[in-house]
Each structure stands twice: as structure tokens, then as C-alpha cells.
Amino acid sequence: MFTGIVEELGEVTAVENLGDASRFRLRGPVVTEGARHGDSIAVNGVCLTVVEHEGDEFTADVMAETLDRSSLGVLAVGSRVNLERPMAVGDRLGGHIVQGHVDGTGEVIERKPSENWEIVKISLPADLTRYVVEKGSITVDGISLTVVEAGPDFFTVSLIPTTLDLTTLGLKQPGDPVNLEVDVIAKYVARLLGSRGEQPAGLPGTQGATP
């Protein structure tokens, strides 16, 4: 379980093609401190397992399913990545509950800089729109963010200078893919209501549904 509060901006140092999978070597002095074989580390919001650990680098195997369903498949040597270790029991939940299970990918549509923040518009897959609401939570490349505007096929987030400086969202340009994980509570609510033949009222794509 993660919180979506990125601990450091790491770097891909090697990529090995294993046929039906890839092995990534990543540098991250903070997240590798005390790391052991089998530990979990979120890489751009994807929960990966530490295979090897040496110095300030670790390796992780990524199967084809994950490469196809996330943006990890476009990573190359030199790519910067958001890194976060799992939340320890008793820690503060600074962001929101993040599983590290990517629901889909979006694409940066545009960036609107301001003096003290920046608005970023991101495309949203049709099957995820029902889970995204204004002022709700969403995880973008492993970053816990608050939705500013929820459109029919997009959403926007407002980024403060710290987020721009310390995460990949300061580097992403229009056309770049990002990993998306919607609020797990919203998914459970939708599943429970769906089992009763109901849908949440007022969510995009479900207007007029009976609560």
C-alpha cells in the first residue's frame, strides 16, 4: 500500500529485454536504503518487486502485461521515474490510499503555467470516467493529486512548484503518457452498487441513475 507521496525522482540506468518481460535497473538512493530482495517499490505508480539491490540501485522484472497496460514500456536508459516505498504501519497517510495497480494510461494534453502553480490537462480513458470527480483523488505516475476539473474524456490537476520540481510531472510534455490509478474506494462503491443493479448518481457518464 502506498500514499502517492513521491519520495524521490529516480533514474533508469539499464533496460534488459527478456522476451516476454523486461528487467529494469533503477537508481534511487532514498528508496534503496535498507531495501531487500522481495520488497516493493512503486515506479511511476506501478508496484514492482525488488529482484536485486546493490548500492543505490535496484532491479525489477516487469512482465508483458504490465508493460502493455502501463507507460513503463516507453522507459529507456536515462528516463526519470517517481519512486515510493510502501507505507509503514503507523505512518501518516499524506496522500490517499494507493495500491500501485495501474487502471490505465492517459496522455498529457496541455500545460497552462501560472505564477505560482501550473494546470495540467490529461486525457482519461472512457472506462475510468465514472470514478473521477471534481475535488476527488487520482494518482498520476504514482503522485496523489486532487482533480480540479472532471470532463467527459479528460481531467485537470493543479501542480505546485514542489510537485513540478520533485516529480516527473515537471518534465512531461503534451503527448507524453502517464499512468493512472483511480480512487480504490470509488471502484468498490461502483462494484457494490453494480451488484445491486444501481449506479452512483452524478458521476460522469451516469447522470440520471437512481441512487
Give an overview of the whole structure:
The chain is mainly beta and 211 residues long. The protein is built from three helices and 13 strands, in the order ββββββαββββββαβα. The chain has helices spanning 64-69, 161-166, 184-195; strands at 8-17, 21-27, 40-43, 46-49, 52-54, 57-63, 80-84, 104-113, 118-123, 137-140, 143-150, 154-159, 177-182. The strands form two sheets. It has a seven-stranded antiparallel beta sheet with strand order 4-3-7-1-2-6-5. Strands 8-9-12-11-10-13 form a six-stranded antiparallel barrel. Strand 3 (40-43) and strand 4 (46-49) form a beta hairpin. The longest helix is centred in the C-terminal third of the chain and has 12 residues, at 184-195. It is globular.
List the keywords.
11% helix, 3 helices, 211 residues
Helix content: 10-25%
Number of helices: 3
How confident is the prediction overall: mean pLDDT? 89
**Terminal CA distance:** 30 Å
